[in-house]
């Protein structure tokens, strides 16, 4: 980088990495319970009301103890995604998000 080039820090890089709106898959993992998919969908719909069960996919773990739930939304902003992930991580049923 030459001395005349502006320095780009990681925060600047994160802001330009995605363009909105865009299709964005939100994945949450938790114990395999009947309510896991409903819980994830309910949380996502708080921030993306247009998301519905057709946008939801579940995948059980090989031993059947855990399940991953993916909901693809039409993300409008980084702030929207951050809010979804904060709410998912606050849920007792969600063990991990990606």
Overall number of structural domains:
1
By CATH, the topology is: Alpha-Beta Plaits
By helix and strand content, what is the structural category? alpha+beta
CATH architecture: 2-Layer Sandwich
**What gap, in angstroms, lies between the N and C termini?**
33 Å
Main sheet attributes: strand count, strand direction, barrel closure: 4 strands, antiparallel
Number of helices: 3
How are helices and strands ordered from N to C?
HEHEEHE
Q: Rg to the nearest angstrom? A: 17 Å
In total, the number of strands is: 4
Mean of all residue-level pLDDT scores: 88
Low-confidence stretches: 5-13
Order of strands across the biggest sheet? 2-3-1-4
The share of residues in extended strands comes to 25-35%
Helix content: 25-40%
Per CATH, the superfamily is ACT domain
Determine and state the CATH class: Alpha Beta
Shape annotation: globular
Q: Concise description?
A:
This protein is of the alpha+beta class.
Comma- or semicolon-separated keywords:
98 residues; alpha+beta; Alpha-Beta Plaits; four-stranded antiparallel β-sheet; 4 strands; 30% strand
List strands and helices in order, with pairings:
Blueprint: H1 10-16, E1 22-31, H2 36-47, E2 56-60, E3 66-75, H3 78-90, E4 94-97
Antiparallel strand pairs: 1-3, 1-4, 2-3
Helix pairs in contact: 2-3
